[in-house]
Sequence to fold (353 residues):
Amino acid sequence: MHRVKDFLPISTIELLQKQGYFLFGHAAVKTCHYTKQALRSKKSCYKQKFYGVQSHQCIQMSPASAFCDQKCVYCWRPTHTFIPVLKSQSPQVVGVDSPQEIVEESIRGQAIQLSGFGGFKDVNREKLAESKLPKHAALSLTGEPTLYPQLPELIQAYHQQGISTFLVSNGLHPEMLERLIKNPPTQLYLSVDSPKKEIHDSLNKPVFSDSWKKLNQSIELLSQFPSRTVIRITCVKGKNMQFPQEFAALIQKGNPDFVEIKGYVHIGFSQYRLPRNCMPSFKEVKAFAQEIAQHLGYHYKMDDKESLVCLLVRSDWKDKSTIIPFRKLFPKAFEEQDAHMQKWKERQAKTKK
Ligand code: SF4
Fold:
């Protein structure tokens, strides 16, 4: 495993560690707010509601925590404030860590970050026992994961451990998406925040001049993916909540299974770049989602008010559940979990006697 300081300046390492990031090589894990909530029987994340992801068993990680080639104004992460932005499209790094090392270290990092949870009075003990066996990896923490050259192998390595994957990409590396078609994540997200190049340039502030062309190439590749695909729009009031018809035309090129319309939230480092009134209300996000659905011919399926997000589905999903059949996808991993929980319950019963 490479050293973190081979990739990040000390000041950034200290900042990220203070914020609860578990850093290793060029990768990172940070326990998600909703994982902590779920372990205390509070609200889980909207992906649990929409797709059945178990928030208490989710590893929020990035294989490229130190690299991004956009400077989105709405980004809450410390990216581009403290994390070096790429200077060239093929970063000369000292070397990359192997997919297997990253999977193992991310699982170890998650366990370390959750180790203190047993001390909370309101912790859900059964969920805590289950959290020892992570079942999902969200490759959406910081940086751009498609910059990690062995990403298809990393996805495969997680799946071999019975861990499903959601990959969130800025779509600026169609050559990597092409390689992922053979080894796709359980669900692939493309962030598409602009129907026009000018808005893309001002909102996402891409580092490289050909980014709009690359993004369009990635959108077209979506239709070739054998796994679920999602286009997610982050709505920033006064910036991109317009041109629903143009958005629909762009989305149509990728024919994604789902479209998530999500309101920008005024948190983290984005507060240095955007005023609070750029955060839309749920009512405004819903109205914009319904406009896009109409132009796109997609069906308004459900929403999560607290997370300011609406789910549109392609017509073939209108009467189908969007919950992922995880047990069917990873039967062995769930057999192991059942055996682990059976033993746990027997121990619980013994201690109660
Ligand atoms: S899927 Fe995302 S929001 Fe949900 S628990 Fe995992 S990291 Fe958090």
Strands lie at 22-24, 27-29, 58-62, 136-139, 164-169, 187-191, 228-235, 258-263, 299-304, 309-313. Residues 123 and 315 are 40 Å apart (CA to CA). The pocket of iron/sulfur cluster is lined by residues 32, 34-35, 45, 47, 53, 55, 58, 60, 138 (CB under 6 Å). The radius of gyration is 20 Å.
